[in-house]
Amino acid sequence: MPRHDLIIVGAGTGNALIDDRFDDLDIALVSAGPFGGTCLNAGCIPSKMLAATADVADSVRAAGRHDVDAELRGVRWRDVRSRVFDRLDAFAEEGEKGRRESGNTTVYRGEARFTGPRRLTVETDDGPVPIEADRFVIAVGGRPVVPPVVADSGLPYETSDTVMRLDEVPGRLVVLGGGYIAAELAHVFHSLGSRVTVIEQADLLLAQQQDELVSRTFTDAVRDQWDLRLGRELTEVSGEPGDLRLTLDDGAELTAETLLVAVGRQPNSDRLDVAAAGVGVDDDGRVTVDGQLRTTADGVWALGDISTRVPLKHVANREAEIVAHNLLHPDEPRTMGYDAVPSAVFTRPQIAQVGLTEQEARDQGMDYAVAVHRYADVAYGWALEETEGFCKVLADRRTGRLLGGHVLGPQAATLVQPLVIGLTTGMTARDLAEQPLWIHPALTEVVENALRGLDPGAADQE
Ligand SMILES: Cc1cc2nc3c(=O)[nH]c(=O)nc-3n(C[C@H](O)[C@H](O)[C@H](O)COP(=O)(O)OP(=O)(O)OC[C@H]3O[C@@H](n4cnc5c(N)ncnc54)[C@H](O)[C@@H]3O)c2cc1C
Ligand SMILES: NC(=O)c1ccc[n+]([C@@H]2O[C@H](COP(=O)([O-])OP(=O)(O)OC[C@H]3O[C@@H](n4cnc5c(N)ncnc54)[C@H](O)[C@@H]3O)[C@@H](O)[C@H]2O)c1
């Protein structure tokens, strides 16, 4: 049986772990799917490339607001799709080729399953290949959850793994779920021509993840564009491929050419049979790790969606840095921090956040100050003719420190970054507002003014 110094399972973020510091190790990299994993092939990157195209189409539609006469004559979907995926597929192939050609890494393509402690079998095209190593990194990510009402219907459905590669923009698209993936892909397909219905069990879109003001404003903003079925469950899927009938718990019947299921993702720990390796999992199937990202089995680390509480690519990337360091420097291990994890939703309006939501601050009984500043009240917001966007900030009244920041509107994912720095470094909201100079009349003034709008509270009265 081939024996390696280190086996990495998963060539998404797992592939990014290897650099020249590992040159003297014999490494095996095992992957069931294409190199680059979810983010490159079916996640962050294609969805954002499509969202950027959707934004262009929307800008043309909205040109009249700027007294520009423009007309959207059409979107060439197949050209869009080729532009996106020809580039990404080539990148994935180059990534695999580069790794195969590196002197010290053996690539095994196929689904792996542990067969014992530090031993697994890869189901390759040439049959099962058992391999073993002293040390392992598990980075096998997750997959879309498909509820039984859909899976058991026997009728076709799409997930984020497949929908971005469809041959046509669906005429009538029903999206099950109202979280990150649903919101971003509903935005894409609506802007590219689909009639979109969203079925979400909660009363607002993005309710699980976002500050209450953000999810309320976002839901109101898209209400006119998408048919929203909020607080609803899907009870039956019938009809035939291309002409689906969806029954809801209030008796309503919807028709759909395409059903996109986006109700969350589950970790791939079951498919890898991590239990056989003595690797423990949490209640939701995530591999259990400590602060140094060690699993419960000696010599086995985990990173990314398979184990993290926050399944985002920038989190997985940082975890990979920590695991790489800890593999190389076992006597000076580093610990992963999750105190100020930002995220963004690339919709229209765009959304970004870091730190606590107002409902979390309230539930934790914190003494907090809150301020909201609108894009419409800064000069560049006037330039954009922006009416709904805002920046909302929360700070601890006792210490003056920033607790959370939420931005809804153009460039939100970029505007949130000063707040991420403030939170990460533990700055007070006042210092963050007053120490740096903020460019006039840039959109960042909406963040500066939100910070300046915070009630100083006890911290400043001392
Ligand atoms: C539609 C969508 C949009 C997203 N957008 C964003 C975004 O904008 N920003 C953001 O931060 N995050 C985003 N995410 C989340 C992001 O994609 C994930 O957090 C990230 O890809 C996780 O990386 P990973 O390496 O842990 O797992 P993955 O990238 O999923 O990699 C797992 C790898 O393991 C392989 N594998 C699985 N099982 C086995 C097995 N048994 N044997 C061998 N190999 C196996 C897979 O083939 C794959 O190569 C998005 C996700 C989706 C689905
Ligand atoms: N821009 C980004 O950073 C980005 C984009 C896409 C995905 N992601 C990552 O991928 C993860 C998964 O995204 P997701 O959108 O699949 O999950 P999610 O957890 O964000 O949202 C799932 C939504 O589906 C709803 N839901 C669950 N079961 C339902 C049912 N049976 N009927 C109707 N609604 C139901 C939930 O209430 C929730 O609103 C995210 O948590 C995020 O970490 C990130």
From TrEMBL:
Domain Pyridine nucleotide-disulphide oxidoreductase dimerisation, first and last residues per copy: 341-450
Pfam families: Pyr_redox_2, Pyr_redox_dim
UniProt binding sites for NAD(+): G177, G178, G179, Y180, I181, A182, A183, E184, E200, G264, D305
Keywords, sorted A to Z: Disulfide bond, FAD, Flavoprotein, Kinase, NAD, NADP, Nucleotide-binding, Oxidoreductase, Redox-active center, Transferase
Note accompanying the cofactor annotation: Binds 1 FAD per subunit.
Residues reported in the UniProt entry to bind FAD: K48
Domain spans labelled FAD/NAD(P)-binding: 5-320
InterPro entries documented for this protein: FAD/NAD-bd_sf (IPR036188), FAD/NAD-binding_dom (IPR023753), FAD/NAD-linked_Rdtase_dimer_sf (IPR016156), Pyr_nuc-diS_OxRdtase (IPR001100), Pyr_nucl-diS_OxRdtase_dimer (IPR004099), Pyr_OxRdtase_I_AS (IPR012999)
Enzyme class: oxidoreductase
Needed cofactors: FAD
Transmembrane feature ranges: none
PROSITE patterns registered for this protein in UniProt: PYRIDINE_REDOX_1
Entry EC no(s): 1.8.1.15
SUPFAM superfamilies linked to this entry: FAD/NAD(P)-binding domain, FAD/NAD-linked reductases, dimerisation (C-terminal) domain
Molecular-function GO term, any one: mycothione reductase [NAD(P)H] activity
Family statement: Belongs to the class-I pyridine nucleotide-disulfide oxidoreductase family.
Protein name: Mycothione reductase
Organism: Streptomyces californicus
